[in-house]
Specification:
Elements (H helix, E strand, L loop, with lengths): L12 H14 L17 H35 L9 H4 L4 H11 L12 H17 L9 H5 L3 H17 L3 E3 L6 E3 H13 L18 H9 L1
Antiparallel strand pairs: 1-2
Helix pairs in contact: 1-2, 2-7, 4-5
Protein name: Spectrin beta, non-erythrocytic 2
Keywords: Actin-binding, Repeat
GO molecular function: actin binding
C-alpha cells in the first residue's frame, strides 16, 4: 500500500504473488521498525525466482516418484517374460518392451516388433502398441508414437498410467461397506482420491486425466500421507 493508503496493483503469476507478499512484508514492521520476516530483504523479482525454483523442485520430485513407482510396476509384469526396464523413458522408446508388456497384461498375441533400430522402426513398434490400446477402447489424448520414441517424460508417464488404469484397475470390482453396491476399482480409487484431497484449495479431482495435470492433486495426496 502506498503513502496515500491506496493498494498497489499487482501483476499476474509469480511476479504478482511476489509483489503482494513483498508489500505484506513491508507492512509487517513492528513499532520499533524491525522487519518480522527475512523475505523483506529480497525484492519481488528475486522472490518470484525463489518461488519458481521451488515449484520446479516440487514438480521434479513428483515426477521422480511417479517414474520410480511406474518402473517397479512395469518390471513386476515384464518379469514374467524375463525382461525388465532400467530407465522408463529410454527403455520404452523402441516399442519392444511396450509390446511385451501389453501382451503380458492382455494375454493376447500382438504383432511382432519390426526388426531394426532406426527411428522409423521404433515409431512402427510404438504405433502397434498404441493401435492395440485404441482397439481396447483406451483413449489416448494428444499422444502419438513420436512422443514415446522421443522420450517425452510427461507423456511416457501418462501412457503407463493409462495402461495401469486399463489393465490393473478398471476390470476389478470392489464392494463398498455402506450400501454393498458393486463398484469398479477405478470408481473406488477415484472416490478415495476425492476423499483424501477434500479441503485442499484448488484441488478438484473429477477424473484420472485432466484433474492431475497441474500436480496439485498428487501433491495433496503426498502431503496427506
Amino acid at each position: 500500500m502506498n503513502t496515500n493508503g491506496v493498494g498497489r496493483v499487482h501483476g499476474n503469476g509469480l511476479n504478482g504473488a511476489a509483489e503482494f507478499y513483498y508489500e505484506a512484508v513491508e507492512g509487517s514492521q513492528n513499532p520499533g521498525g524491525v522487519l518480522l520476516s527475512p523475505a523483506a530483504f529480497i525484492n519481488p523479482a528475486q522472490y518470484a525466482s525463489v518461488l519458481e525454483g521451488r515449484f520446479k523442485q516440487l514438480q521434479d520430485e513428483r515426477e521422480a516418484v511417479q517414474k520410480k513407482t511406474f518402473t517397479k510396476w512395469v518390471n513386476s509384469h515384464l518379469a514374467r517374460v524375463t525382461c525388465r526396464v532400467g530407465d522408463l523413458y529410454s527403455d520404452l522408446r523402441d516399442g519392444r518392451n511396450l509390446l511385451r508388456l501389453l501382451e503380458v497384461l492382455s494375454g493376447e498375441t500382438l504383432p511382432k516388433p519390426t526388426k531394426g533400430r532406426m527411428r522409423i522402426h521404433c515409431l512402427e513398434n510404438v504405433d502397434k502398441a498404441l493401435q492395440f490400446l485404441k482397439e481396447q477402447k483406451v483413449h489416448l489424448e494428444n499422444m502419438g508414437s513420436h512422443d514415446i520414441v522421443d522420450g517425452n517424460h510427461r507423456l511416457t508417464l501418462g501412457l503407463v498410467w493409462t495402461i495401469i488404469l486399463r489393465f490393473q484397475i478398471q476390470d476389478i470390482s470392489v464392494e463398498t461397506e455402506d450400501n454393498k453396491e458393486k463398484k469398479s476399482a477405478k470408481d473406488a480409487l477415484l472416490l478415495w482420491c476425492q476423499m483424501k484431497t477434500a479441503g485442499y484449495p484448488n484441488v478438484n479431482v473429477h477424473n484420472f486425466t485432466t484433474s492431475w495435470r497441474d500436480g496439485l492433486a498428487f501433491n495433496a495426496i503426498v502431503h496427506k500421507h
